[in-house]
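User: I'm writing a tutorial on reading structure tokens. Could you give me a worked example: one chain, its sequence, then its tokens, then a sentence or two explaining what the tokens reveal?
Assistant: Sure. Here is the example chain.
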Amino acid sequence: MRRRAGLVLLALAVFCAAMAPTLRWYAFPRLAKIPPNQYQETVLEAKPATLLNYSTLKAEKVDRITIIQTLKGNVEESRRIERDAGRDVVVWDALAHITGPDGAMVSQIPERYIFDAHTQDPVHATGEMVDGDPVRRDGIEFKWPFLTEKRDYRYFDAQTRTSAPIHYKGTRTFRGTEVYYFEQTIPWTQVPMPKTMPVKGITPKLLADSGLTRWYTTKRMFWVEPVTGAPLNGEEIHKEELRNAEALMGQDTLTVFEGHVKMREDYIESVGAMVSSNRLMVLLLVSYLPWSLSLLALLLLGLALWLEARSRRPAPEADTTPVTPPV
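And here are its predicted structure tokens:
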């Protein structure tokens, strides 16, 4: 009976030992993915800021500028692209809607970001664009891969339509959570005019024909939770200028927008709660379950060996001393 129980325990130990690496190296890369129907809204603010007043053609100090960033999963497009790509694909239709202190629209830039649901690598397909211009992304945008590494990544900049390194600057603690801090600086670069302008009658073509050029620089900062690859916080020190404006506006350079853009406090809290729940699910696959199964396998193996040793222990010898009959 002991020998049979030992064999059962040994079989269970082998099963647990095999499942531990299977969960980590086979199941996790296939199960951990971004859902195609995800919707996320983030509000960022620059308080105070400098903004160009198009009615007076002068840069003015304002109390705040608000940027509403939305990411909406396009399920139909992801299914269409998956049929050709042969892998799980996510399509995010993104929109950065910028408003002034009075709530009026300053500009808005739509994007379509197509990427691998598991690795976050870009997937090139028809429809990939920024503000209506076709692009071919090189590197990540909005989100880092699961199990983010302590290294530099390629990060796509929507204004310049190009990718550049975003540098790992060390491990920090943000609101009690260990995060990786990344930083990217885009030097002054000439960028396209937004397709949507705040004043009717002013079009990108009209500004380009007048000789105006738009220039942009930013310092981009992210605090990334490494297990999920999701930024817990993001900031930008952002500046835009119109140059060659002497003939039209009376001076060569005009500041269009300048400010330190930060996530609003309530959205930092909501993002933190969402990341915490997703972090637990990822850790179950990569750490908690594999380690628990490994320890359980060792425990079952030890118990099986103990039962086997007891089953082989020799039985006690019978007492052969003759019994003296009673007188």
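What the tokens reveal: The chain is about 30% helix and 40% strand. Residues 265-311 form the longest helix (47 residues).
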